[in-house]
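input
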Amino acid sequence: MKSSIRRRLVIFTTVFWIVSTSLLSLVLIIAGRATMTTEANQRNEQLASVVSRDINAQISTIVASSRTFATYIEKIPPDLPSQAQAFLALRLTSPQRYLAAYYFDNQANLLIRLDDPPGDLLALSASSIVTRPMISTGTDVLSAFQAAETSTYVSPISFDPIDFSPLIFIGLPVKSSAGDRVLVLKVDVSDIWERIDLMTVGQSGIAYLVSRDGIIVAHPNRAYVGKPVPSELKQFLAGGEGPAQYTEPFRKELVLAAISPVGGQTGWSTVIQQDKSEAYAAMSRTVATSVGIWSLLSAVGIVGILISVRNFARPIVSLTKTAQYIARTGELARTAMAQNPDEVGQLSQAFDGMIGKLESAEQKLLESQQGLENRVTVRTAQLTEANTLLKSEIEQRAQVEQALRESELKYRHVVQGTTAIILEMDMEGRVTFFNQYGAEFFGFTESEIMGKSVVGTIVPPRDSAGRDLEAMIHDIVKNPELYRRNENENVRKNGERVWIAWSNQPLIDEEGRPRGILCVGMDMTERKKAEAILDAQTREQAATAERTRLARDLHDAVSQTLFSASLIADVLPRIWERNPEQGRDRLEEIRQLTRGALAEMRTLLFELRPAALVDVELPDLLKQLAESVTGRARVPVSTHFEGQCKIPPDAKIALYRIAQEALNNIAKHSGADSGMVMLKSEPGRVELRVRDNGAGFDRSKVTGRSLGLGIMEERARTIGASLDVHSEVGRGTEVTAIWQISTEEEQP
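output
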């Protein structure tokens, strides 16, 4: 019986002990893993939230500073030099933050471009910025401009192609007095990226940034930038936060992660990630320890069970022996009780080791948070200093505005004190401004002239020559660029007519539309009177000189020709009686002389009435010139005409004068015994040739004004024709003029 009881006790207690210790160890391991997972997720979520708040604060500060600058731009004068100076001040204040600034009007025209390197900013001025050529911008700038026409816009992250620094583009609408405009700032956020790189958890933990589209935009390893986030994180991209567990797709490592939205207009989210193996490292050690303890407890338990069974059985055996002894002897005996050892303290020590590990991890997190707070304090101090500089800049701008107001006051004094007539009229021709000198000059008071049409007040409907001045005023309003300089007759209030030389400049409103005309006038009445007197004297002198020339030509040409014809006619009967053949030659000579005299008379009549040249065809005019030279110089000149072409009157007269000068040279200088005039006409082209067989001349020894060459060249130049004079000594001379219709004249 003793052996049976001991065996059953040993088996039962051993099995019970092993199962109990195994279940206890398993429960401890499962609870530890769950606790560590929860704590790791909470730690990652807290750190992601802290990092997100820090990024949001920095981005919000940048956007707020940009909005403050946009508000400042709205308040300063709208002229581009003033606003370019403000852009330059912004770049100088934060050269590493604001890498470029662009300023557009509502038509997408680039007004200001300031993307120079920081080292070149001090050499720039507002005028050089405004006058520089406006090159095309990148797509990021144009996208920011289009998205910011009505509200503030923060672009997704992009990276500089040279140094891969992270950039964002901030677009802000500007309500300027010069019209709706858009400000686009190129911002470097490298310092935010550096902070993200510093955020670590343990040896494998990292922090990275993702966009609202699920694209990684900032990562300690640049190879990850631009890659999509794991699908387990995409459910939080709409603005939620929480933990996630997934296999990292590039390293194929199981990781624990937490995501938290940054907030604001960026749409970014912060992800804190740590390898699961590292997060469970302490748990792995705990499991190993638990297995060791379990093994030890099992061994000790078995030994204890054996000892306990032995000790348990020993009192029974001893009692049996004692009972037998008492039964046999009747003497009473006592037995001592063995105590079992307590192993709870060992289990407590195992848990204390695990808690110690957890306390060490928490201390590291607190130290990281303290470092982050210190960096926030430093950044706050930097922003305070920047705000101080901005305040100083605003005060300087106020001083500049005061100087501009004083300058405007001086301008008004100059306008009112000048001796020039200055007025503005709207697009209906009504007076909207009249300086004091102009009102006094025309004799009107301000109430009499303001708001009234210039026609009927200072401009008569028609001038003394009958020109329609009312139509001219309407044309000036519609087409001011055609009347930059204009002289016309005006009228004073008392009816006196005066001549004013006007300089007209269109006025443009904030939307680029014409709103009126600025007119500056000078009194030219006395000069006009002097010019009229001088013109009358000049015309009288010209008429006298022309009458003298015509009388001389009439005497030299027509009179001598008729005198020669008269002499031949007197001797013609006697010659005819002696030699009829010679008489017929003399008769033909008389015919040529009379035809030449008739042609010369017609030429002189054309000189008296130049307008008549327009009514006669060019071949008839040339034929008449040839007959005139034949009769006057006794040099036969033949004519040859080919084709027909309708040419303008000015070209016809110019070619006629060139032929006239060339034929005069044949008659006076060539010594030729024959000449020829040829005219070849084609559609859009006329070629004139005048040729003789005279003595010719050396072209290199003849000046431009000799033999009328300068006159012929001037005539050809006025109609755009080419002129070529070819001559050789002893071989005659040929003058060629070619006129072609121009491209502008061909257009309908």
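quick obs: Confidence is low (pLDDT under 50) at residues 332-340, 342-349, 743-748.
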